[in-house]
Amino acid sequence: MKGSIGKMMQQAQAMQGKMEEAQKELARMEVTGEAGAGMVKVTMTGKHEVKNVQIDPSALEEDAEFLEDLIAAAINDAVQHVESASKEKMSDMTGGMDLPEGMKFPF
User: Fold this and answer.
1) pLDDT value of residue 27
2) CA-CA distance, 78 to 22, in Å (whole number)?
3) Which residues are the signal sequence here (predicted)?
4) Higher pLDDT among residues 52 and 3, named by residue
5) The whole model's pTM is what?
6) Which helix or strand (DSSP H or E) is residue 34 part of?
7) Buried-state track 29-43, b at ≥16 Cβ within 10 A, e below 16
């Protein structure tokens, strides 16, 4: 029994190391969200930090509310890309193990 506990601890440590590396990789990742058929593009890191906003000059001819909606939609699109990439990466790490809704790694 003592050997199996030691083996489990080694596996847990190995998993923790892989998780830390995955988190670093996700933090370095950059995604681009778009809205208005590319009129607004937002580049975001895996840590949800906005790095760049590009606005097509034609979008500036619209009213402010329309432009604001495009920016919000592009940010939300980028967030969805980050979440999808994170979920995929963590799924790879957990061997496809389904976690309960709302449970995220790391805990």
Assistant:
1) 86
2) 19
3) none
4) 52
5) 0.72
6) strand 30-35
7) bebbbbbbeebbbbb
